[in-house]
Write a structure and sequence with these properties.
This protein has 15 helices and 14 strands. It is of the alpha/beta class. Belongs to the acetokinase family.
């Protein structure tokens, strides 16, 4: 039997197929630019079963329903999934679970209705997640389906950390509070860190840094999150690819008053035109790092701002935790950018954080230790695997129900 994991985004569909017995990967794929009628969607498929049916191609895909149909066709063509009858379960990434979901749950009509009610909190993501759920339920009506929520891991954050200093009625009536995201990744790498250090996670204080186009930090004590940088939406916190992260909220009033920017324009400004892109015109850290090394001033500035904000969050979360045993870098940037890791840890020696520059340049798929011999705090690079974590949680739900 097999476990299928879906991550249905606003214009993309990412999937992985696992063998139930050991959760080894049989196949994976990505459909991007769904609904692009001009250039068409990008399809990528990778077969890990030994059949070697790997390919990348263009295809006209109108919507997520078409994308899921193509996914099944690719899996069938490769021989990795002959029919949905081979599936023991299907796990879905759902971005926003609000306060309703602290754990992964088997999907039924009540769960679907609850995810629908949370659409105002995640208008770009939850509708796409729901589409993935509904279409796969049509294709495999007898297969157990499980929702795994990005926000669930952060539901352990205490009230004093998740509430904003706004009228309390806004929390009571509109549920305005910190929710946090990337929870599946933060939880996964924290457990991986504990295993690597041969320590019980209940005894550890860990700062996890998920750094990609979207970026967030988390403070984890005893395996539970006590704070995270993203807030009610994924806009708050660290500098990101196109998102501003933290800023003075009065800037919005100023821009509205002085240059008459409307709500939609401000939304687009902060979410799509800010962050690294806003500073240097580029949101890919690889390109920014090369340009910075070649002396490009704006690229250097973008890199410096990104790492300075990250450094502040490391210090803040060490204070919130009362000290840290371990700092973990993960995500596309966290796993691959030596310069980001170096600049983010630079100058933190008095906090017990000392990075080994030579170790930091090593590239490997396994867990990498990059702290120096005299560092009081472990610094680890841990590849995240959200799909594997979703598969594991899906298996746990279907075997316990």
């Amino acid at each position: 039997m097999k476990i299928l994991v879906l991550n249905s985004g606003s214009s993309s569909l990412k999937f992985q197929l696992f063998l139930k017995e050991d959760l080894s990967v049989l196949a994976s794929g990505l459909v991007e630019q769904i609904g692009d009628t001009q250039s068409g969607a990008e399809l990528t498929f990778n077969d890990s079963s030994g059949l070697k049916k790997n390919f990348s191609r263009k295809h006209s895909i109108a919507d997520h329903r078409d994308a899921i149909q193509v996914m099944y066709e690719m899996l069938e063509e490769s021989g990795t999934l002959v029919s949905t009858g081979e599936l023991a379960g299907i796990g879905h990434r759902v971005v926003h679970g609000g306060e309703s979901f602290h754990l992964p749950v088997r999907i039924d009509a009540h769960v679907i209705a609850a995810i629908e009610e949370l659409i105002p909190l995640a208008p770009l993501h939850n509708p796409a997640n729901l589409t993935g759920i509904r279409v796969t339920m049509e294709h495999a009506p007898k297969t157990p389906q499980v929702a795994v929520f990005d926000t669930a891991f952060h539901q352990s954050i205490p009230e004093h950390a998740y509430l904003y200093a706004l009228p309390y009625s806004l929390y009571e009536k509109q549920k305005v509070r910190r929710y946090g995201f990337h929870g599946t990744s933060h939880g996964y790498v924290a457990r991986q860190a504990a295993g690597h250090l041969k320590r019980h996670i209940e005894d550890l204080h860990i700062v996890t840094l998920h750094l990609g186009n979207g970026a967030s930090a988390a403070a984890i004590r005893g395996g539970e999150c006590i704070d995270t940088s993203m807030g009610m939406t994924p806009l708050e916190g660290l500098v990101m690819g196109t998102r501003s992260g933290d800023l003075d909220p009065a800037i919005l009033f100023y821009l509205n008053r002085e240059i008459h920017m409307g709500m939609d324009e401000l939304d687009a400004l902060l979410n799509k035109e800010s962050g690294l892109k806003g500073i240097c015109g580029e949101n890919d850290m690889r390109s920014i790092s090369v340009a910075a090394e070649q002396g490009d001033r704006q690229a250097r500035l973008a890199l410096g701002i990104f790492c300075y904000r990250l450094k502040k969050y490391i210090g803040a979360y060490m204070a919130a935790l009362g000290g840290a045993d371990c700092i973990v870098f993960t995500g596309g940037i966290g796993e691959n950018s030596a310069i980001v890791r170096e600049l983010s840890c630079q100058g933190l020696e008095r906090l017990g954080i000392s990075l080994d520059r030579k170790k930091n340049t090593i590239r490997q798929k396994e867990i990498l230790e990059i702290h120096s011999a005299d560092s009081l705090i472990n610094i680890l690079v841990i590849p995240t695997d959200e799909e594997h974590e979703i598969a594991s949680q899906t298996l746990g739900v279907i075997t316990s129900s």
